[in-house]
Amino acid sequence: MSDVTDKDLIDAILAGNQRAFEEFMQRYKNLVRHIIVRMIANTADREDLGQEVFFKIYHNLGTFRFASKVSTWVAKIAHNACVNYLQKKKIPLLENNYLEEDKNGITLERFRGDGQSPLESVEQENAAALIQAAIEQLPVHYRSVITLYHLHEMSYAEISEIMGLPEGTVKSYLFRARKILRHKLARVYAEEAAVT
Amino acid sequence: MKHPSEDQIQAYIDHKLNPEDKEMVRNHLRTCPVCRRTVRSYQRIYEQLKVEPNWQFSLQFDARVMRKISKESLGEIYNKLWYALLIFGIFIAVISITVAYTDAQSYLNMVRNISLPRFDMNWDFLKSFNFLPDVSSLFKGTKLNAHFMVLCIIVLVVIVLIDQAIQFARTRTHQGV
Questions:
Q1: Closest chain B residue to the Cα of A22, Cα to Cα
Q2: What does pLDDT average to over chain B?
Q3: Which domains does chain A have, with CATH numbers?
Q4: Which among A40-44, A164-168, B155-159, B172-176 has the top mean pLDDT?
Q5: Most CB contacts within 10 A, which of A11, A135, A178, B87?
Q6: Is B119 helix (H, G, I), strand (E, B) or coil?
Q7: Under an 8 A CB cutoff, do A46 and B55 touch?
Q8: Ranges of residues in chain A whose predicted pLDDT is under 70
Q9: Does any CB of chain B come closer than 8 Å to the CB of residue A186?
Q10: Which residues, in sequence order, are bridge partners of residue B144?
């Protein structure tokens, strides 16, 4: 069913074909998963939130008018569900929690392991773990922007529509997020470079 | 020597610089090891940002979503049927109470006097067809009760309405597509 267009798939779902919705879910599950993982820290709530997102998608498919890409529309629903969840839990979307950690002198040292040299411990997969850990410390909005831009290769305009923010703001969050990541990881990379 | 800003370096890696700025940054990088290191560290970050997060939905995720959807879709229909049953129940209750506090006997007599006509069906027209002439003899003397016919029609209408309700719940508003 992979050559079926999104429109055909949505038509089939609206005609009552539940298998078509399963196919739709397969197509967009990763997008929804990435948004939820990057926005919601509590792993126990991610599954429920994912179900809620697909449930909302199913019930609102009839109102989708193809004014944007289906992926943009799906991402917007997932993003809004996460924002609602965070607002209910009173978790700020833009608070620089990473600054708090830096003030307390806690850096990425804790992700390095047990005092081995960077080259020994920061292998390819460990580098991924490091960056994931650094991403988790970014404000929620920054995490959303880098996920949509780098992982799903969305444009500023699409991200702006998903997050309901001006394009300039999206661009500024993206640049700032990468700058923070670079400064957080600079020491690790510098040490690696020095050893090599 | 003026170094390009970090934003410019990011935009350079992103291929988002205009040709003039791009050339300027490129020329600068040829001679500046500090900025080359910055570009390399950003490139590594860009590579890592393309790595998917490990966390996955459970294996039962799809089944749970589909179950929820089926349950809720049927729920809409069930809710409507419950409303219909509730209204019918209230109607019966009102009639019962009214009968109890009024002249029940005259009320019952009135109901009994409502009689629909009985039709004696003449099946002779079947003889005009050339095939199976004996069919008419099978129905000879059969009498159809008007109450029975009305009941059949009501049952058919109810079935059609339920079918329509199910169709409506499944397709919902299809106008947008």
A1: B62
A2: 78
A3: 6-88 (1.10.1740.10), 97-195 (1.10.10.10)
A4: A164-168
A5: A178
A6: strand
A7: yes
A8: 1-2, 95-125, 187-196
A9: yes
A10: B119
